[in-house]
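Quick one - inputs below.
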Amino acid sequence: MNDSFFQLPDNKRNKIINAGFRVFSQYTYKKSPMSEIAAEAGISKSLLFYYFKNKKELYLYLCRYSVEVTQQAMIEQNCYDNEDFFDVFLSGLKVKVQLMKSYPELSVFQLKAYYEKDKELRPEINRLIGQYSGFENQADSLGLKKEKFADGLDLEMMYKDMYYASEGYLWEKLQNNDIDPDKMEKDFVRMIGFWRKLYSRNNNEE
Amino acid sequence: MNDSFFQLPDNKRNKIINAGFRVFSQYTYKKSPMSEIAAEAGISKSLLFYYFKNKKELYLYLCRYSVEVTQQAMIEQNCYDNEDFFDVFLSGLKVKVQLMKSYPELSVFQLKAYYEKDKELRPEINRLIGQYSGFENQADSLGLKKEKFADGLDLEMMYKDMYYASEGYLWEKLQNNDIDPDKMEKDFVRMIGFWRKLYSRNNNEE
DNA sequence: TCCTTACTGACCGAATCGGTCAATGACATT
DNA sequence: AATGTCATTGACCGATTCGGTCAGTAAGGA
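Output:
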């Protein structure tokens, strides 16, 4: 990987990165042409090979970068130092949405990478992305304390409901290519508000 | 399209159809190789071209067939002659799940077809699939009568919650290649039960 | 024996893809 | 002005892939 890639002005470098995210998330690794990435980034294929010595290097760089930028965003959005369950959930969604502003296809790219089957890639992807750090495993760590919720509520079902609804919403928008981060954030805020009122012990407040 | 294709025994014909669904739903139309479909169906590429005169004909046949078989299932499951909102919703989900038993990739195929961008295919796909007949437009026609639900409930949000959660669930299972129709149906029944209790006016019953 | 029909493997021309390379132009140094 | 460095390109290459064809084969029925 050539150093000059990092000396590039941000907008030009991001254009290449986003082109990579887009192409690799639309096709399989093997069926993703370097030529298409170059064209979409507005540079020649040769130059792309000047920055990255081959396709594999570009792909793995994008993997690393996607993880890096996600973690960075999680920290900036201070996702963890909230104690209210609904606030934590919302801040997690905000990160996803915020990231889409800069990298619309990042989340799809990560998902595809997670399921990529290419033999010579699989081990390295595992090393980079590791366990999928989605929401579904966080149920326990989110401090679900029964006292705060309505009587007789099935907390597990509540969590699944919220998790799947969020995923379903995001997935539909991505499929529709209807990516409007600000609208998404508003939708999520409204959705969380709906749930908070529905699930909380005292729903006559607010 | 050769008649002999229809004279095939069901299992052999379905093997070809499912191979087509799988390949076309994994890749774009253009990047879906006839050879891969043939191999997965256990026949020679030549024979596939004996049944269908070219790739386009096979693809469009699969489009027609997917619509046909879906409508058939909707009728058999008598989706429409139910009056309770939750029952209607559940029967719709049951159709999807039931279809997966015979054609695991059908729903993904239809979705991909809906978003396929190939120029010479686009108009014909529109003619065959038409408006996407998902759940999201059915909200009004499902007879949502306020009296039946809890006080002050935002019915639109309730519907969106249920719709997106179902989509999110299905989508995750499809991505994970974790397709177990019976388990899915049980999950849906449980989920609908949760919602019914949560949203209904008298939730002390049941 | 002859005809039809289901089916195959070998083959073809065209396109695509990953990757290379010589050349060019911009710019800084001498 | 001459030299050197480096970003950038288009043309090119060999390998592979892909849609589609075709001659041929094996099976069965007339």
